[in-house]
Design a protein that fits this description.
The chain has about 375 residues and is α+β, with helices and mostly antiparallel strands. Helices cover about 30% and strands about 30% of the residues. The strands form two sheets. The chain has an eight-stranded mixed sheet, with helices on both faces.
Amino acid sequence: MNAPVDITNVQLETERLVLRPWRERDLEDFFAYASVDGVGQMAGWTPHQSREESREILGHFIAGKHTFALELKENGRVIGSLGLEAREETPGILSELQGREIGYVLSKDYWGRGLMPEAVKAVIDYCFRELDFDFLTCGHFDWNRQSRRVIEKCGFRYLSDETCETRYGTTEITKLYIRYNPLRTTAPFDAAGVQLKTERLLLRPIGEGDWEDLRKIASEPEIADMGGCPRFKTEEEMRKFLDKHVRDNETLALVLKQTGQMVGTFSVQARPWEKYPIDPTLRGREFGFDLNKAYWGRGLMPEALKAVTAYCLDTLGYDFVTCGHFLRNARSARVIEKCGFSYLFEMEHEMPTGVTEQIRTYIMYKERQHV
């Protein structure tokens, strides 16, 4: 379903660009790039033959209220356009979801400078955060490698092939991509309000008093390696790590009832859901956990995972929760499998250490919850 759009009073800024509504005085800049051979063909139209042709199309841009002019900050020139276009219902996209298709053109003089990804990312952010779109699509002709690179850099994933009749009489294969709004898929979580008890554990918000116990966990090389975290060289780095846990308000401390010692952490995280093969109408979060090495092999983490899974699915009403591990992390794999999660997919992920790891992700849906 096409979402409503009106950019009449909208202005977006990036490092090098201002994205704003078109104006009649933009005619010369528009004609200057739209009349160059090789520009319009990328989007399926022929170069403009006259200013009158450009003036007519400029009038449509202004009246339509859904096409941005791309103004270069350094000289104030308009060097391209980016429209939020309506499209017919598309197989593979649920009809109740609302979104639009991004279409763009850039002056040939400015190709290869990374300007279009900069503009597209700004519009994605605007559509998802301000307009609350469920999705955006974007496509390119099969031979248009430049547009393909833009689309991939902006986080879209391939959806399907389509055929397109161009205005210059050819039939082209179009690669269509989609990006779902991750803000719609991420369920709310407030660690500050959580107190869970299991047979041996208390799960509560992590706090400043957990500094020493957290330091023991985070300074263990094998734990840092399996979690993809950098090894902390100073207590200041460690302090920043703790502060982030508290500030994000999504991490619980695992505390032994018997001794009161914090022996692990359990995070309920937002993720880049557009990369996950999950129905975008569902909402959930992803789990991440660490355990003090001295307590490995005692079944404490499955105990915690079952409790948090039940809390998220039953009490908070999530549709799903996910959990993942590096392929080489056999311990985490056993924990996840013991708790009844099902395999979802694998993908590469660049860790804070700069290393790229293959991560295997599992999922549990509410209707399949057995813990």
